[in-house]
Amino acid sequence: MESKLQQEQQVANYNYQYFSGANVYIKMKPSDSEAPATNIVECAGISYSVSNSQQPVYGYASTLYDAMLPGRTIVQGTFVVNYREPFYIEKQLGKGYLDDDDYYSIVEIGNYLFPLFDIEIWFGAQKGRSQLIRQCALISSGQTIQVNEQVVLQEYGFLGRHIIPLKEKKKLIVGEPIIEEKKVTMGEPVYTTSTAGDT
User: Fold this and answer.
1) What's the domain range around 9?
2) How many domains does the chain contain in total?
3) Please, are residues 71 and 52 in contact by the beta-carbon 8 Å criterion?
4) What is the arithmetic mean of pLDDT over 149-153?
5) In a domain, 179, yes or no
């Protein structure tokens, strides 16, 4: 049987112009971790949308709006995984964060102690066409079990901060630290740290 790495390499050999679910796969990782994202092999589907609460402003006797008030943006979505064991996704995301002794008392849906995570959506193993949902949080989890031959699935609901192209992962985000490299006369780099959004 071929390994997952061999399958990904085979997918990367094809120059897809269009995609189907068969050549899309999902990876996840804690947002503040530098480790590579984990391929969630059991993920059977994902859906998401971006919404903004901006509102139109109408002037006196205007039938068409004259301006737009800025709103707040949020990403909402769900993904489903083939059920294998309790807390499968929580365990994948919580690796390295939690002790085994108090694990089940911490990784609860909606618990503020649970680390935020990123979702990488890879299209045909082409990074330039893939997307990244930043700083997600799990908000729901559920199952529907029927007495038939269908695989039992577990559905998770999540909220995300925003979506960017995967190749722009280092894009500056307001509130996140910025590390700048400056050269001095001796040729040695000097690093300074500030916060995105500072003036």
Assistant:
1) 4-172
2) 1
3) yes
4) 89
5) no
**CA–CA distances in Å: residue 77 to residues 87, 113, 127, 196, 197:** 19, 21, 22, 27, 27
Q: How far is CA 161 from CA 116, 123, 156, 164, in A?
A: 10, 21, 17, 10
Q: What is the pLDDT at residue 123? A: 87
What mean pLDDT is reported for the chain?
76
CATH of the domain at 26: 2.30.110
What's the pLDDT tens digit per position in 18-35? 788 888 889 998 888 788
- What is the tens place of the pLDDT at every residue in 135-149? 998 888 888 888 888
Residues 90 and 108: their CA atoms lie apart, in Å, by 8
Residue 190 in domain? no
Query: Residue 145 contacts by C-beta under 8 Å, 6 or more apart in sequence?
Result: 152
CA neighbor of 43 nearest in space, from 88, 13, 97, 104? 88
How far is the C-alpha of 42 from the C-alpha of 89, rounded, in Å?
A: 9
Contact (Cβ atoms closer than 8 angstroms) between residue 160 and residue 135:
yes
CB atoms within 10 A of CB 87: 15
84 within some domain: yes
Residue 125 · residue 22 · CB < 8 Å = no
Please provide residue 167's backbone torsions phi and psi, each rounded to the nearest 5 degrees.
-70, -15
